[in-house]
Amino acid sequence: MNDAPPHGVTAARNPLLSLSSVVKRYDTVLAVAGVDLSVRDGEILTILGPSGSGKTTLLKMVAGFEQPDEGRIRLGERDITEATPASRGIGMVFQNYALFPHMAVAENVAFPLEMRRMGQAQIKERVARALALVGLAGYEKRYPRQLSGGQQQRVALARAVVFEPPILLLDEPFGALDRKLREQMQLEVKRLQRQLGITALFVTHDQEEALVLSDRIAVMNLGRVEQIGTPFEIYAQPVNRFVADFIGESNLYRGTVSAMAQDRLTAGIESGLTITAQTAAPRPVGSTVGIVVRPEAPRALGDCETADNVATGSVTEVVYLGDAIKYVVALDGGAEMTVRWPYRPSSEALPIGARLRLGWSADLVHVVGWD
């Protein structure tokens, strides 16, 4: 498992939150299967996974809404495994905002401070500062029903950070927003996290959101953490077939190793195409591997050009994505390859049926286990 520090975060920084061998069962269902995880002080770590992977259950155990059947959870020097949610002092932001509809914005944000019996002058100062941070100064007297979805989520963020919690938990907080608002809120959280030095544990099933927001990503599947790494590592260096297939779009082929020489692996895929990869991990000749080629890796080759890997085929689908065009290419021999290239207004998209000669470098091929 790759647990390298994120850019700007050194390995010397102690974990603020740590989970050790945490297990959660619901009757016969193993929802979380012995997870070890640490969140470093000052980072955003995202738990990413499909529905049913255990990510929300894990977050609920950190928050105190669920108790682990096995394992321990520590926040700094405190063991909080059996602590009540209120005593943990953790900030939370939910998808449904969870604002009090009968309270004005300032009252909603002030609520956690009042529960801590803070003085009115300090409450007023903190609420004003928190609302200014999320761009809602002047909205103090409005009610949630008078706000847009994005504004309500900003209020929820302000309420979560106003009492300066040691860690912020975010459970799919932008799932109810449209794409543009979601992207704005992602940048807002990133800005707040950097400005305030907040440590955050973020849960999402949205891969793009995880790549944008995170210092590190923990990919979960069937209750287990498959890989922990920076967004670059998760995308470019997946450790297994699940991560390669789940993160982003990929051309994933089942291959049989035909040669292994130094850092070069050659494998044949079922269509008869041979692919060469640069890899530091030797694999036995005859073993089955997964060959991962991301859509942006292949380029169109001219008649006299060559590359480590070359394949020819015909375009079967053309998808305009705004900033890019995606082509599905039926390769000669039966395999299919998706390629994605930047859109240039000066050039026309290739038509269906167009012939392509594709080439890509061995260092843009990633090899994973197939089992």
What's the helix count?
9
Q: How would you sum up the major sheet?
A: 6 strands, mixed
The order of strands across the largest sheet is: 6-7-8-3-9-10
Structural class: alpha+beta
Helix/strand order, N-terminal first = EEEHEEHEHHHEHEHEEHHEEEEEEEEEE
Q: Flag low-confidence runs.
A: 1-12
The fraction of residues in strands falls at 35-45%
Q: What's the shape?
A: globular
Terminal CA distance reads: 16 Å
Rg result: 24 Å
Percent in helix: 10-25%
What does this molecule look like?
With 371 residues, the protein is an alpha+beta fold. Helices cover 24% and strands 36% of the residues. It has nine helices and 20 strands. The strands form four sheets. Strands 6-7-8-3-9-10 form a six-stranded mixed β-sheet, sandwiched between helices. Strands 13-12-11-14-20 form a five-stranded antiparallel β-sheet. The protein starts with 14 loop residues before the first strand and ends with a strand. The N terminus is likely disordered.
